[in-house]
Amino acid sequence: MKKWLLLGLLPLGLPAFGQASVAYYPWADLFTVSTNPNRTLWLDARFQTNTLFGQLNTTLAPLINLKKTENYQFYTGPGVRFSAIDAAQGGDFLQGYSWQFGVRVAPLTALPQLQAAFEISPSVSSGFSSGVLYSRLGVAYVFRKKSEL
């Protein structure tokens, strides 16, 4: 039980490693917390917000920036979806796999931390028996150190 609790609390410690970012995709009911997305390689933790305990899935996705400018960034990377609650209830811990293709755009030059986010993500179940193509549109905010503002 301790390892499940520790695994569930792991994403809360991500901002301690430096800059962080949060994003919300309202139509997909998805909330994300990530390490510094301005770096070439960054980690994103994704949490479903449309359910209390029934299908509380979490996805960890290491992402890589393919192209980054001051106004936009293109990124991609794999993801692993799991559910500690399903595992505690006798179900499968591993729920599936995904691949993210995304872009974040900062349309306001006065507030570059505020970004519009769009993603396409093909996902498959852990047994590769079914799949779905997700498209997500949301908003992201990148927290920066005071010296960078």
Brief characterization of the structure:
By secondary structure, this protein is mostly beta strands.
Task: Explain the layout of strands and helices.
Blueprint: H1 2-9, E1 20-25, E2 30-35, E3 41-48, E4 58-68, E5 72-82, H2 84-88, E6 94-105, E7 114-125, E8 131-143
Antiparallel strand pairs: 1-2, 1-8, 2-3, 3-4, 4-5, 5-6, 6-7, 7-8
Please state how the strands of the largest beta sheet are arranged side by side: 1-2-3-4-5-6-7-8
Measured on Cα atoms, how large is the radius of gyration? 16 Å
The count of DSSP E runs of length 2 or more, i.e. the number of strands, is: 8
- Reading the helices and strands in chain order gives HEEEEEHEEE
Give the CA-based shape. Answer: elongated
Summed over residues and divided by their number, the pLDDT gives a mean of: 84
* Number of helices in the DSSP assignment: 2
Tally the structural domains.
1
Stretches with pLDDT under 50, minimum 5 residues: 1-17
Q: Which percent range fits the helix content? A: under 10%
Word description of this protein:
The protein is mostly beta strands and about 150 residues long. Helix content is about 10%, strand content about 55%. It has an 8-stranded antiparallel β-barrel. Strand 7 and strand 8 form a beta hairpin. The longest helix is centred in the first third of the chain and has 8 residues. It is elongated. The N terminus is likely disordered.
